[in-house]
Amino acid sequence: MPTGRVRRTAKVGSLVGGQAARAYATKAANLTRSEQGRREAAERRQVEAAEQIVEVLGSMKGAAMKVGQVASFIDAGALPPEASKRIQQKLAELRDSAPRVSFKDMRRVIEQDLGEKLRDVFAEFEEDAVAAASIGQVYRARLHDGREVAVKVQYPGIGSAVRADLQNLGLLLRAGKRIAPGMDVKAMSTEVRERLTEELDYEHEAQSQRAFARAWKSHPFVYIPDVVTDLCAEHVLVTEWAEGIGFEEVKTLPRPERDRFGEIVFRFFFESLYRIGHFSGDPHPGNFRLMSDGRVAFLDFGMTRKVDRGWVEHERAIFRLAFDGDAEGLYRELTGMGFYAADDPEVTPERVLAHFEAATAWYGEDGETTLDAEVVRATMIDLGDPRSEHWPLMRRATLPPERMLATRMEALTLGVLGQLEARANWGAIAREWLYGEPPATELGREEEGFFDRLASSGRSDSTRPAEPIA
To answer: What's the pLDDT at 226?
Structure first.
């Protein structure tokens, strides 16, 4: 894993240059192709670019891997199903395969950060990593008091690699934009810088995970492992072990079990935002475990954001305007927030509403929907792809930085549900927190008492529907 700026710049620069050359070659060849031929060539080129970019950026770890993950998870669903499947498989391989970092080096990080020998801290420690991510990898261990724990350790030198990547962020985002043409580079840059800086500090992540564990404590089907606070430092994070099956195994379960798992994932990420105001922006499949008692354990809280109650209320009200078909109200609010220029004659209330409805149809409409590859593909295209009929409008939009992580969370959640081919009335479930309606499913009824208690404690306004915008 290269950590110096020169080597990392050279690797990304070579990738971007090669992609540009291939794009020019495709444009030249298109001069002699039919319209259908040009479309097919463009699609083949995008598939090839996506696979190469995911491979190169994923192998680099650091911010490079993060940009590759974000772009590909957002846009892979817009590619043909077979191509999307190959890219998701490549991401899974990169996510689950530990890099070539010797345990000796990783052990040194643990002992230096904790100030003790490994044997003095842990009764048992498995030297083979069980998972790997963009800036660290996870080991399984047992404390002297008998508790099974997960030990997350940063790669040696990853801080230097991330700082080099942040200096090269413009180049990285050019690579990412080859996968996701509709990606808002400015908003993405802001979020990557802010979130990765936080991710490098595992003490910050420990604080976030403790907050999530408190907020979701005693929930009937969501479980957040507790943090072992006295064993956490800047580069080491120790949490209680969550035993369960991973996402790839969940995908093989019968449909009712996949549907239940999918609804729990949907509820956790969306309710974290709309009911609690503290959400994770990282709904990657490697961060879930289905436990034997039916609960789902959620892991990795390095990329989170807190939003205040006023922001949540405003978001709810905007969705209500859209779902109620109020084009003028929606246009007024989005131009007021800076999504669109109020004096742009090409941006009309009707066009704004049509795009909003297309991008949110999977949970904005009443009725059961199976989130298969075609639904995900159509939605991802309408979220930011030149092939969308709404692309002329999207090009005129500016996504505010504070909305970037929430949009990413929603897109990645859809991508996860699409891999499960989960089925539910997503619109009826969403109306629980957007309109304050009664529970729409058995899971909703199971958690109703939990959110009632949360609201009565003053930590949530979940039972109260959003106030209309004046």
So the answer is: 97
Give 33-75 pLDDT, tens digit per residue. 676 766 666 666 556 665 555 555 555 555 445 555 544 444 4
In a domain, 138, yes or no: yes
Q: Note whether 296 and 426 are same-domain residues.
A: yes
Closest of 71, 9, 18 to residue 45, by C-alpha: 18
User: Could you give the CA distance from residue 330 to residue 333 in angstroms, rounded to a whole number?
Assistant: 5
- Work out the average pLDDT over 312-319: 93
Q: Which helix (H) or strand (E) holds 152?
A: strand 148-154
Q: What are phi and psi of 21, to 5 degrees?
A: -60, -40
- CATH number of the domain residue 150 falls in: 3.30.200.20
Q: Which residues of 329-351 are buried (b: 16+ CB within 10 A; e: fewer)?
A: bbbbbbbeeebbeeeeeebebeb
Query: Domain for residue 194, yes or no?
Result: no
**Does residue 1 contact residue 94 with C-beta atoms inside 8 Å?**
no
Strands (E) located in 191-287: 222-223, 236-240, 278-280
Calculate the alpha carbon distances from 412 to 75, 346, 408 in Å. Answer: 10, 30, 6
pTM, two decimal places: 0.78
User: What range defines the domain where residue 342 resides?
Assistant: 244-470
Tell me if 189 is assigned to some domain: no
- Is there a single domain that holds both residue 143 and residue 59? no
Rounded to the nearest 5°, which phi and psi values hold at 372?
-90, -175
Instruction: Determine the Cα angle at 250 with ends 249 and 252, to 5°.
Output: 70
